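[Discussion] Sanity-checking designs against the backbone

I'm trying to build intuition for which residues belong where. Below is a structure token string of 93 positions. I'd appreciate it if someone posts a full sequence so I can compare it with mine line by line.
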């Protein structure tokens, strides 16, 4: 897993959240809760993957789960941005 890619995606998420009016500390707390905290569903996926791939791949599995959550969250933010711009555009014209 490329940690530079993770950091660049986190930076994009922080920028999107700051444009929505959040401070950097609020954005960091939100990212920690949304991406780095593994829910019970994430842990169930992790247990199944570990039983299939082995305990030595645990770190890779966790990083992949977090990367998927990161990509999904960024896509949601960008989708909301496009929807917001479309509504503004429709309202003005």
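Best answer:
Here's mine. Compare freely.
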């Amino acid at each position: 897993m490329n940690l530079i890619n993770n950091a660049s995606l986190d930076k994009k998420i922080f920028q999107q959240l700051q444009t929505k009016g959040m401070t950097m500390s609020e954005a960091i707390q939100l990212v920690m809760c949304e991406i780095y905290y593994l829910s019970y569903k994430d842990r169930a996926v992790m247990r199944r993957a570990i039983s299939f791939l082995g305990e030595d791949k645990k770190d890779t599995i966790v990083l992949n789960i977090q990367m998927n959550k990161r990509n999904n969250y960024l896509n949601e933010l960008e989708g909301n941005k496009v929807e917001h711009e479309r509504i503004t555009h429709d309202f003005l014209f």
